[in-house]
């Protein structure tokens, strides 16, 4: 932490005590024994076999054999940077979160930008959603805002996430195609799950091909909750706005750049920071008093919908500056573990069913991706706040816990932490209801906000979106799937549906449908009967 003008990363740097430069040290094994030769393995005579007793050879190759860890199941390709966040004015009226209430305080952050569908070695300039994940190393513990560059999501309930991701990733038998948006399985899913449509409009727009991570918005997507000192809550939507403005590539550029420099966005971020042109983003909030929870056409718990800024303006509340590149990609950018459930006092969840699923999924996947339950001890994940509890042992345990006890409560008095002051306490929301698999009526309207988004585009943006639909859906080989998607598009906008249909050899919808909002297309009822009921 730092106040005023001191560098914000100092405290975090100090904790990254394993950063090292070995250039002036003698070469040793991992047990610290100096090595006499690292080019020639030990052999029995000049032409004999390599000897098992060459422990340096065996250790060196074994370590190499184990260098790879599983890539993230989604968002595998990313680039990250350190920086700091500073709030403009205290938000104490809404939240007790320390880092949002002290305008003098610079809180260290690490941000990881990512593509979603591609593997770790895939290209940067593909048509895809971009991740925008921020870890705030606050004095009260780590807070993660794990967002995307689009304000809504494809599905409403996290139980569909495995299906959705299986549809997005390359097909399992041949791992083709690598391009996220140009294949049958994705469009099949879209046609059968029309709740994806609003997000698909964003995905076919220029937002899906950002020029630079420095010129990209970020959104928390879900409605979260701020909680003040008294325990009162306010709904909140988080927005990041780049001070350089939001800029995209055009499709033709993405193709050429992708061929020449698959690291285009990653390189741009790295070089800008090396040159001292630090990316800056303003944090904005849409604040909704609890009394207004039901004042909107949409349910605040529905992550496929946004709250229009005309209804609830975005208030700028602070600024983030990214001013330091990581020292080691693997140790930091690869091993960082973001999790929506990493919250601090003053920030809480809502019952958005997508968010609730995420609160389970991230920790679960990190337990395997990062080799067991001690990954918070990795330097990039380690909080600057003190950690003390009775969790013990497990793979990769680096902490030496002193004392005789590791249980609570105990009266023997050595080693066991006590319950301290100002702890995290969950918002006391009243919940009531039968156990059902059903959401409120407005979850069924898959079209209104898709139309709203389309109508917000300028002429050329709309032209880009239309050609993106033609290009991507035109890559789908199954005509029935193309037709089904066009039928849905007709419920969004007749002119768009006709233009797309004409571009991809599908019979254009004849007449404009009656406004279809709030229900699924009649022609689709059969396909949707299993999936589109709420
Ligand atoms: C990873 C965003 C929905 C599961 C990520 C990352 C981002 C992100 C930014 C990359 C984090 C990083 O850089 O390390 C979002 C957003 C969502 C969403 C904005 C919806 C609003 C979901 C859902 C699930 C899920 C519904 C599961 C039910 C995962 C998993 C990872 C991931 C397993 C990999 C995490 C890791 O290996 O560390 N997500 N996601 N996400 N997401 Fe999501």
Give the arrangement of secondary structure elements.
Elements: E1 2-3, H1 10-15, H2 55-65, E2 78-87, E3 105-115, E4 130-138, E5 141-148, H3 161-168, H4 184-192, H5 197-203, E6 218-219, E7 224-227, E8 233-242, H6 251-260, H7 264-274, E9 280-289, E10 315-324, H8 329-334, E11 347-348, H9 353-369, H10 448-455, H11 459-473, H12 479-492, H13 494-503, H14 525-528
Antiparallel strand pairs: 1-3, 2-3, 2-10, 3-4, 4-5, 6-8, 7-8, 7-11, 8-9, 9-10
Helix pairs in contact: 3-4, 4-12, 5-10, 11-13, 12-13
The structure holds protoporphyrin IX containing FE.
Protoporphyrin IX containing FE binds at residues 72-75, 78, 112, 114, 131, 133, 146-148, 153, 158, 161, 221, 303, 336-338, 354, 357-358, 361-362, 365-366, 369.
Kindly report how far apart the N and C termini lie.
47 Å
Mean model confidence by pLDDT: 93
Number of strands: 11
Associated small molecules = protoporphyrin IX containing FE
How much helix, percentage-wise, in residues? 25-40%
What low-confidence regions span 5 or more consecutive residues with pLDDT below 50? 3-7, 518-534
Largest β-sheet summary: 11 strands, antiparallel
Q: Nearest-angstrom radius of gyration? A: 26 Å
Task: Spell out the helices and strands N to C.
Answer: EHHEEEEHHHEEEHHEEHEHHHHHH
Shape: globular
Query: What's the number of helices?
Result: 14
User: Which structural class do you get from the secondary structure elements?
Assistant: alpha+beta
- How much of the polypeptide forms β-strand, as a percent range? 5-15%
Function: Decomposes hydrogen peroxide into water and oxygen; serves to protect cells from the toxic effects of hydrogen peroxide.
Keywords: Heme, Hydrogen peroxide, Iron, Metal-binding, Oxidoreductase, Peroxidase
Region (Disordered): 1-48, 508-529
Active site: 75, 148
């Amino acid at each position: 932490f730092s106040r005023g003008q001191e560098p914000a990363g100092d405290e975090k740097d100090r904790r990254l005590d394993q950063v090292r430069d070995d250039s002036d040290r003698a070469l040793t094994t991992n047990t610290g024994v100096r090595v006499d030769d690292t080019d020639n393995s030990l052999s029995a005579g000049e032409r004999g076999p390599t000897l098992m007793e060459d422990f340096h050879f065996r250790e060196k190759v074994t370590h190499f054999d184990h260098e790879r860890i599983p890539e993230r199941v989604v968002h595998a390709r990313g680039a990250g940077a350190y920086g700091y966040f500073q709030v403009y004015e205290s938000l104490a009226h809404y939240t007790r979160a320390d880092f949002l209430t002290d305008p003098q305080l610079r809180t260290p952050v690490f941000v990881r930008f990512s593509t979603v569908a591609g593997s770790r070695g895939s290209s940067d300039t593909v048509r895809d959603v971009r991740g925008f994940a921020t870890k705030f190393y606050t004095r009260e513990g780590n807070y993660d805002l794990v967002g995307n560059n689009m304000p809504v999501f494809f599905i409403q309930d996290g139980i569909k996430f495995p299906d959705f991701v299986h549809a997005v990733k390359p097909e399992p038998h041949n791992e083709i195609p690598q391009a996220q948006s140009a294949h049958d399985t994705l469009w099949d899913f879209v046609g059968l799950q029309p709740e994806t449509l609003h997000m698909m409009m964003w995905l076919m727009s220029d937002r899906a091909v950002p020029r630079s991570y420095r010129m990209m918005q970020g959104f928390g997507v879900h409605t979260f909750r701020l909680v003040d000192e008294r325990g009162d809550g306010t709904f909140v939507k988080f927005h990041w706005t780049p001070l350089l403005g939001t800029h995209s590539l055009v499709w033709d550029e993405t193709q050429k750049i992708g061929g020449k420099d698959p690291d285009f966005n990653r390189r741009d971020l790295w070089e800008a920071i090396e040159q001292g042109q630090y990316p800056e983003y303003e944090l904005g909030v849409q604040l909704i008093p609890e009394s207004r929870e039901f004042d909107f056409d949409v349910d605040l718990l529905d992550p496929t919908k946004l709250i229009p800024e005309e209804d609830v303006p975005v208030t700028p509340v602070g600024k983030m500056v990214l001013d330091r590149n990581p020292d080691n990609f693997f140790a930091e950018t690869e091993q960082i573990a973001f999790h929506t459930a990493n919250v601090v006092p003053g920030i809480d969840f809502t019952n958005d069913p997508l968010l609730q699923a995420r609160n389970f999924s991230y920790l679960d996947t990190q337990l395997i991706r990062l080799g067991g339950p001690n990954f918070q001890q990795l330097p990039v994940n380690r909080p600057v706040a003190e950690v003390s509890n009775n969790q013990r042992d497990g793979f990769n345990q680096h902490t030496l816990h002193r004392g005789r006890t590791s249980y609570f409560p105990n009266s023997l008095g050595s080693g066991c932490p006590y319950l301290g002051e100002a702890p995290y306490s969950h918002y006391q929301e009243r919940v009531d209801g039968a156990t059902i698999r059903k959401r409120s009526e407005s979850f069924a309207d898959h079209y209104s906000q898709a139309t709203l988004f389309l109508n917000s585009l300028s002429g050329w943006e709309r032209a880009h979106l239309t050609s993106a639909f033609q290009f991507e859906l035109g890559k789908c080989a199954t005509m029935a799937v193309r037709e089904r998607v066009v039928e849905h598009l007709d419920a969004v906008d007749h002119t768009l549906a006709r233009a797309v249909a004409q571009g991809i050899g599908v019979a254009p919808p004849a007449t404009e449908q009656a406004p279809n909002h709030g229900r699924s297309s009649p022609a689709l009822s059969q396909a949707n009967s299993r999936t589109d009921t709420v």
